[in-house]
Amino acid sequence: MHQDGIFHITIVLFLLSGVIALVLDVEILRRDNLEKEKKLARLFGWLNVILGLLIFVGSWVYNTFVF
Which residues cross the membrane (predicted)? Predict the structure, then answer.
Protein backbone atom coordinates (compact mmCIF):
# COMPACT_ATOMS: atom_id res chain seq x y z
CA MET A 1 0.00 0.00 0.00
CA HIS A 2 1.56 3.27 -1.13
CA GLN A 3 1.33 6.22 1.21
CA ASP A 4 3.91 8.39 -0.49
CA GLY A 5 2.05 11.64 0.15
CA ILE A 6 2.16 11.16 3.90
CA PHE A 7 5.85 10.31 3.80
CA HIS A 8 6.67 13.32 1.63
CA ILE A 9 4.85 15.68 3.96
CA THR A 10 6.53 14.09 6.99
CA ILE A 11 9.96 14.39 5.39
CA VAL A 12 9.43 18.05 4.53
CA LEU A 13 8.14 18.86 8.01
CA PHE A 14 11.04 17.11 9.76
CA LEU A 15 13.63 18.78 7.53
CA LEU A 16 12.10 22.26 7.73
CA SER A 17 11.59 22.17 11.49
CA GLY A 18 15.14 20.90 11.96
CA VAL A 19 16.67 23.59 9.79
CA ILE A 20 14.59 26.30 11.45
CA ALA A 21 15.65 25.07 14.89
CA LEU A 22 19.29 25.02 13.83
CA VAL A 23 19.27 28.43 12.16
CA LEU A 24 16.79 30.62 14.01
CA ASP A 25 16.41 29.10 17.46
CA VAL A 26 20.10 28.54 18.05
CA GLU A 27 20.91 32.10 16.98
CA ILE A 28 18.25 33.60 19.27
CA LEU A 29 19.36 31.46 22.20
CA ARG A 30 23.02 32.32 21.56
CA ARG A 31 22.18 36.02 21.56
CA ASP A 32 20.36 35.66 24.89
CA ASN A 33 23.20 33.58 26.45
CA LEU A 34 20.97 30.56 27.12
CA GLU A 35 23.54 27.78 26.75
CA LYS A 36 21.45 24.81 27.96
CA GLU A 37 18.53 25.76 25.77
CA LYS A 38 20.88 26.30 22.81
CA LYS A 39 22.30 22.79 23.23
CA LEU A 40 18.80 21.31 23.37
CA ALA A 41 17.67 23.29 20.30
CA ARG A 42 20.74 22.08 18.44
CA LEU A 43 20.11 18.48 19.56
CA PHE A 44 16.45 18.51 18.52
CA GLY A 45 17.25 20.32 15.28
CA TRP A 46 19.75 17.66 14.25
CA LEU A 47 17.38 14.93 15.45
CA ASN A 48 14.65 16.28 13.14
CA VAL A 49 17.05 16.52 10.19
CA ILE A 50 18.32 12.97 10.77
CA LEU A 51 14.79 11.57 11.13
CA GLY A 52 13.72 13.32 7.92
CA LEU A 53 16.70 11.88 6.06
CA LEU A 54 16.12 8.38 7.49
CA ILE A 55 12.46 8.44 6.45
CA PHE A 56 13.49 9.67 2.98
CA VAL A 57 16.08 6.91 2.55
CA GLY A 58 13.72 4.27 3.96
CA SER A 59 10.93 5.35 1.64
CA TRP A 60 13.28 5.34 -1.35
CA VAL A 61 14.64 1.85 -0.51
CA TYR A 62 11.13 0.52 0.03
CA ASN A 63 9.77 1.99 -3.22
CA THR A 64 12.83 0.94 -5.24
CA PHE A 65 13.41 -2.59 -4.04
CA VAL A 66 10.08 -3.78 -2.60
CA PHE A 67 7.56 -2.29 -5.01
Answer: 6-28, 40-62
